[in-house]
Amino acid sequence: MLKIDNLHAAYGGIKALRGVSIEVKPGECVAVLGANGAGKSTLLKIISAVMKPVSGSITFCDRKIPSFPYLVVQCGIVHVPEGRQIFPNLTVYENLMVGAFLRNDKNGINQDLEWVYTLFPRLKERQHQYGGLLSGGEQQMLAISRGLMAHPKLLLLDEPSLGLAPIIVNQIFEILKEINKSGTAILIVEQNAYKALSVADRGYIMATGVIEKSGTSKELLSDEKLLKAYLGD
Ligand SMILES: Nc1ncnc2c1ncn2[C@@H]1O[C@H](COP(=O)(O)OP(=O)(O)OP(=O)(O)O)[C@@H](O)[C@H]1O
Ligand SMILES: [Mg+2]
């Protein structure tokens, strides 16, 4: 479904990605794990066309990925960014509708709205409150739901566990499993390897812009030394 081949990226002289190749098959949940500064966010920014690569190819459903972010959304890829980036001065409902901005299928939009309210009942309860008044966990739920409102085939998630209490992280990851089971493919980047591999089918380990290892979640989880070497405790 998503194929990335030999991707290179840089910020001026800083090489952030050096020959990254990964793929996501239809319906899969794939994790890219890496410590601070590994290049995880850079990878997602390039997929969603908010940043240009130096070289390399990306195809989605056998077609070259478009070079503008809104076209990437239109072809079925949605990016839930690091740090949530919800709109604090819009209500929960308005934030969700921003996610559906490129759609005009009213019935489909209403169905997806009901779906995200079923996944995250807290959002329904708080639908008329400003996004900025939500807790960190609720804002993460809102960011994921805003992404779902575009009805993606592939959801890109940048560190959804960041800064959240373990109990909230567990809740969110249970729902990510449900979203994936419903047929939406997921590419998740995380520092929290154990959590990410608990939902992912497969994973890649990235260090300083290079993919060092890949394997099924089971294989990676059983190699404690490897996880410690690249990701710490
Ligand atoms: N705007 C920028 N300008 C210059 N260098 C940058 C910029 N953004 C990222 N970098 C550098 O690129 C490399 C990869 O950064 P990136 O944000 O992709 O890592 P990450 O794996 O997402 O890290 P984190 O876990 O901290 O979010 C790092 O060396 C980082 O310092
Ligand atoms: Mg990052």
- Global structural class: alpha/beta
CATH superfamily: P-loop containing nucleotide triphosphate hydrolases
What is the rounded Rg?
17 Å
The name of the CATH topology is Rossmann fold
Which descriptors would you attach to this protein?
single chain, alpha/beta, four-stranded antiparallel sheet, binds adenosine-5'-triphosphate, binds magnesium ion, six-stranded mixed sheet, 233 residues, 39% helix, Rossmann fold
Mind explaining what this structure looks like?
The protein is of the alpha/beta class and 233 residues long. The protein has one domain: P-loop containing nucleotide triphosphate hydrolases (Rossmann fold, 3-Layer(aba) Sandwich), CATH 3.40.50.300. Helix content is 39%, strand content 27%. The chain has 10 helices and 10 strands. It has helices at residues 40-47, 69-74, 92-99, 106-119, 121-125, 136-148, 166-181, 193-199, 217-222, 224-231, and strands at residues 2-11, 14-24, 29-33, 55-60, 63-64, 77-80, 154-158, 185-190, 202-207, 210-216. A 6-stranded mixed beta sheet has the order 6-7-8-3-9-10, sandwiched between helices. Strands 2-1-4-5 form a 4-stranded antiparallel beta sheet, with helices on one face. A hairpin with a 2-residue loop joins strand 1 and strand 2 (14-24). It is globular, with a radius of gyration of 17 Å. The chain starts with a strand and ends with a helix. The mean pLDDT is 96. The protein binds adenosine-5'-triphosphate (ATP) and magnesium ion. Adenosine-5'-triphosphate binds at residues 11, 14, 16, 34, 36-42, 82, 191.
